[in-house]
Amino acid sequence: ETGVTQTPRHLVMGMTNKKSLKCEQHLGHNAMYWYKQSAKKPLELMFVYNFKEQTENNSVPSRFSPECPNSSHLFLHLHTLQPEDSALYLCASSQPGTGDGGNTIYFGEGSWLTVV
Amino acid sequence: QKEVEQNSGPLSVPEGAIASLNCTYSDRGSQSFFWYRQYSGKSPELIMSIYSNGDKEDGRFTAQLNKASQYVSLLIRDSQPSDSATYLCAVNTPYSGGGADGLTFGKGTHLIIQP
Questions:
Q1: What does DSSP assign to residue A3?
Q2: pLDDT digits (tens, 9 = 90+) for A69-96
Q3: Alpha-carbon span A42 to B24, nearest angstrom
């Protein structure tokens, strides 16, 4: 249990569907992230939110739409996805400015997405 | 373009030996360095963080940082079969003061500890 909870853990969706991934963190952090992990590729940073404000969109296609209603919750809305979007989507959180200049990120268990 | 390079392996080490994992990074402005362990089908979990040049030890794990060479390593002493996993090197290169910047990850090194 990492303090970051993601639902659903597994999702299969058609290319015309609309679905959402949900993330909730219980660590009292102010920053939340979405990462994508595909086979044989490094973890890719998708979005960063700091105090509910989006501070980074890493050139992510518009078929991925994030939402951060508060510092504890983060959503990733999915619509008209492609099969190549099938991957493990990881939510993470951190508390910026803590530690010795660090920005330690804690991950949730991930949501396995399959687009058919 | 920030890059983090790791040898993908697999790196095979006999049980009880020292496993040595290496990582290089491209951005000299990088300030924080992390090692994550990821078991198959699971999410990454933090093992070590290091911010200053030199060694940092935590139990069987030692992280080493050399900013001049842009090099980070992780040593695992007395390797156990349960250490078999993919080890991800991650680097934080802040570009906005005090903010949340995310981490740049390498592809990971697959480590196998042979009983």
A1: S
A2: 999 999 999 999 999 999 999 999 998 7
A3: 14
